[in-house]
Amino acid sequence: MRWGRGLRTLSPPRILLLGFAGFLVYAFPGYMSTDSAQQLVEARTFVFSDGHPPIMAAEWGVLDRIVSGPILMLLLQGTLFLGGLYVLLGRVLSPRAAAWAAIGVLLFPPVLTPMAVIWKDSQMAAFLVAGTAAMVHPRLRIRLVGLGLLGVACALRHNAFAAVVPLVFFLFEWKPGLRWWKRTAILAAVAIVTVAATFGLTRALAVEHVKLTPAFADITGVLAFTHDRTDEDLRDVLRGTSLVVKTGIQARARVLFALRGGWRVTQGEDRLFDYPKSPEEWEALSRAWKELVLGDPGAYLGAHWDRFAELLGVSEDQPRASVWNLFLEVRERMATIDHDASHSRAQAWIGRQLAWLSDHTPLFRPYVYALIALALLVSCCRDRLTAGLLTSGLLYQLSFFPVSAEPDYRYSHWMIACVCLATVILFVQRRRERLA
């Protein structure tokens, strides 16, 4: 057929543009949640807090002054992600094949859905892929640019360091042929400088500082999983804290844990605590956290595993928001940020198909990709690129265990993207070995 012959003769740039156009058919002008809207407000006022990554708000502030709304952020993260995929796949494929494979990874539903949303997770994935692609370049100056891109990724999420360290360890070379101890020393220095620069940048940009702590979630989890305890006992343990409930404390904690949503612990009529307002309340909260966690480490680990199992999709419940295709979580806020958008027929149809895949297939279950990653590391992985990608994805996923993260699908996005990319590379490598 004529269109088939046309596709076979397309140049790599046109293939990439075609695939990116397909991405925009679903994603334009960029989906947003409440987190996205809060960052857009900070971007427009240029008053940044560290409750969300200030570097993302600063970046959005610049782009929003060029074209208002999420569209340029969507174009940025989509371009960095697709371009990085193309470069990395070009190491094992011809340019045309690499272009087709790159858009295949981008449009693969479990990878596509978070990349269509203006989230720090999506931005982080874009900078990680672009930084990895730059870090394997033969020129040192390009490799250093790659480190800079990975540094930006670190500033976009508090636990992105877990994803960056394996990539730097396996892939970065100051000079080829260095002895192992020199290479290790350079990598350690690079890691320290990257972390210091990340914290320094965040500190410099943030005007309003938000004290984030896992103590509320941990206390609620321990109370939910520990043995039955009396109100008198718990009032003593939680003395001096901003505890709201004086009776039925453990029952309230168990209800809040079952309902999910960490915000419920300190917000709403059924909250367990008020947010601390004084250093004394913060000190009491820290003391109570230590007493409860160290007093029953089994309950602590049980609560964290319960959350982590749900994040992996091991439990009956699907991780939350695996297909997020809302232009804003609360539509009434559209007017407050001067943004209005509605779904095209194509977007509505694609969204329904993606939701069906999420609900009726294991395609969006992160544990599937974790198992694939482990199997590939053990049986197939023989090169530094795939080892770095797979280790990066797995360590990043594991970094959510100690913080008892809410079971949002987007937190597994980086691991899934790494597994998809590494699988394609390993498949091509093994196929070439068999044909040789």
What would your notes on this structure say?
The chain has 436 residues and is mainly alpha-helical. Among the domains are: 11-208, no CATH class; 215-312, no CATH class. Helices cover 66% and strands 0% of the residues. It has 20 helices and no strands. The chain has helices at residues 2-8, 12-27, 34-45, 54-66, 71-89, 95-107, 109-115, 120-135, 140-156, 161-171, 180-205, 215-225, 231-237, 249-259, 279-295, 297-312, 345-360, 366-379, 384-398, 413-435. Helix 10 (161-171) packs antiparallel against helix 11 (180-205), helix 12 (215-225) packs across helix 16 (297-312) and helix 18 (366-379) packs parallel to helix 20 (413-435). The longest helix has 26 residues, at 180-205. The chain starts with a helix and ends with a helix. The model has no long low-confidence stretch (mean pLDDT 89).
